[in-house]
Amino acid sequence: MVKCLSMEDMYDFLDGRMDGKKITQIDRHMQECASCSARFEELLETEHTISALFPPASVDATFTDQVMDQLPKKKTGITKKHHWRATFGTVMITAAFIFLVFSILQKEDYQNTSSVSIKVKDVKISDAFIYVTLATSGYDGKHLLLDNPTDYDTSMVFPNGENKLSGFITDKSQSEVRFEFPLFDVPDSRFNLLFTINRLYGIDGQWSLQVPIDRREMLAQTENVTLQTSFEKDGIAVNFIRAQHGPENSLFQFETKFTEGMATFVEQQVTKYTAGLPQDEKTAFVGYNAQILFDVFNAEEQKLSRSIPEDTISIQNDRYAHTKTLSGYPSVQNGGYLLVTGAKFELPTDVRHSLTIDQLPYAFTYKSTDYEVKLLPDRRLEISSDAKTTSIESWHVTVDHKTAWDYSEFRTENQKQYTTFTLEKDIPFDSFILYGQTELKYVYFDKPITVDIH
To answer: Is residue 87 within 8 Å of 44, Cβ to Cβ?
Structure first.
């Protein structure tokens, strides 16, 4: 049971500085506690009055236009006579958005326990996507930000307190990262995006940012289309489910899986490439992936650029892995089609090198590509190669049959690509085994498959 709330709790609740479970508990408590409900209404009224008294800030016209595009087109009146939940629904969005804007203008962090700061630089909303760019400052090292998926969580927080994990990184540089949120299965027109980050540039800390979203007009303009097309070819079965068309974007949803023959082929390939390895080392080859290859054309026969990645299916413990995936493109609301051309496979390789520290730097060649392994300062191991011809897509490092690295970073620079591993602190690193885990193989159909998307 949640006790009666302190003023600090109410401010944390208002500003979104708590997780979805705690929000739900406090929401329920204020429905049942007349005292806390009344105090919270008074706080909302006070905050609303204070927000109107903020001094004007000088910003350029571009930023002002971006902010105004996100605000609701119609104003909603606020009165103390309303039920507190209705009042909260309106004022929470207004107060949170004002808080966001002034945090950006004044260059203040939401929450930060490190010398590195991160802020919301830009928010764009379309009919099918939300794009949020975060910018950092206070770091001048050589690490890249947010390279490990466990370093952060992104989620949508809905008015009923539900918290749904969503969003992914689409672009990043040394100081900025861009997140993309598909809106295919999000019926709510208003919600908050919550960013929770526990490590930037390899520095532990705690950062939390919240962005209010209102997309009522965009949602009203979208159109859903049921697709009844499926096929099975060269070991992959594909079932197209539905499409969503809007004035700016189109999203497609489909399911893919390996057929019986492909599942058997996968197991044979893994067995072949791991036959000479000790049993404990075979765990380095944990998966096998495939992606279907397709293009989308509009009514004028123009090929469109993909805005989110194609589908990926993998075989690990489940030989009939089944994946439901979204893919996004510029809008084809006025007509178009989808052309499936083949599949891309990742095969385990037989690249395996037992090395000791005194052998580094170490060079080898695999399929006409030169690779080099170096030991960098601060317990970091780096593998480099020619970015244009490399066949190895990922690497694995083990010591005594155990994973020897904490997290990795990938970068492309001057036509070379680098994978840098930060090694586990508690593992002695006198000798290790380096595995090249996958290479790419493309299979193109003799005759492409056309899917009508209307």
So the answer is: yes
